[in-house]
From TrEMBL:
This is Efflux RND transporter periplasmic adaptor subunit. It comes from Flavobacterium ginsengisoli. Residues 59-196 form the Multidrug resistance protein MdtA-like barrel-sandwich hybrid domain. Belongs to the membrane fusion protein (MFP) (TC 8.A.1) family. Pfam families: Beta-barrel_RND_2 (PF25954), BSH_RND (PF25917). Residues 210-283 form the CusB-like beta-barrel domain. Residues 398-422 are annotated as: Disordered.
Amino acid sequence: MKKSKLAILIIIGVLLVGSIAYFIFHKDGNKVELITEKPHYGDIATSVTATGKIQPVDTVAVGTQVSGTIQKVFVDFNSVVKKGQLLAQIDQSLFLAQVQQIAANLQLSKNNLGYQQSNFNRQNELYKAGGISRADYETAKNLYDVAKDNVNSVAAQLRSAEKNLSYTNIYSPIDGTVLSRKVSEGQTVAASLNTPTLFSIAKDLSKMQVRASVDEADVGNVKVGENATFTVDAFPDDVFKGTVIEIRLEPTISSNVVTYTTIINAPNDDLKLKPGMTANIIIYTNEVKNTLLIPAKAIAFQPDSTLEKQFKIRKLSLRNHKGEHKGKNGNKYGGNSGLNNKTLDTIDHKKAIVWKKVGDSIIPKHIRIGLDDDINVQVIRGLTAQDEIITGVNALKQTKGAKSTESSPFMPKRGGGGGRRQ
């Protein structure tokens, strides 16, 4: 009995030791893989996004200076017109009658002028011969002068009436395309304080403009001459290019949001862009070509103590403007120092730290960076294209032979017969 009890105790002890060893070695079997990338050469840019409307470079509103009824309309929407081309005509009957009436008055004035001139000549001869008094002479002279002035006055009225008659013909002031026609034949237009608009004509649809609304937080980075790209909903796969030509100082305030109108030229040789389209715009405020780049996530990576089991982590030292700058509590890991890369920016702007993998070692590297587009970061100094930069850590992987679920091999297994039928 004693031997059997001793054997049972030994077996139980072996099982306990085996269970403990299983859990210990099973956990130690998990390894970490570092994700690394090498710096590469490419282009990088920082940008500002905005929305805006596409409009022609120059649009002319054609109106009328006289009131009347539209008698004829010679153009329609999208008509291509030339400068001086007749667009519409207002009923001329009243204006023509007024011209004829004033022309008749002018002829009367001229006849009266001829009579007064003859009379003045006679009175002048009599006055010189002493046949009439000076008063009669001055009366004749005054009537002659009034007749001359009356002719000039009626002639001016005739020119005004003829001008108004010419205004009944509406001509195109520029070469362009009719965008809108706001009148029809038989419609009455009244030219009072505000000149009514009859037609809108775009000068050249092959040259368009984008009027972008740039937020006040971004407008400080936008400069004249910067490149821009934009898309429109009508052609989502096409990217149109342009250049910033003007930043207007007049602010636009809507719902307490301040924006500034920024004009971007947009060549439209294929006439795809239509007036009034909504454009989604990217303005490139800084651009660098063929420069050394690293992923932005390499700047954010910080090693922790779990990597120390597999890799040698070199101590991280940060320099401030006076001397060495160590982590909080002397911790050698940048991730636990309380001084991350964002804090570094406040100490020395445009500096950062990345971690290099050299064999089984993880080494910090101080670098100077430039542009950052949230995907890549420009490296100005501190790295080469042969360096192996750590960007992250792979998910935990188990060693060969380890089971996917951590459960004791000595625990009873649940039977499979109680499952639901499919």
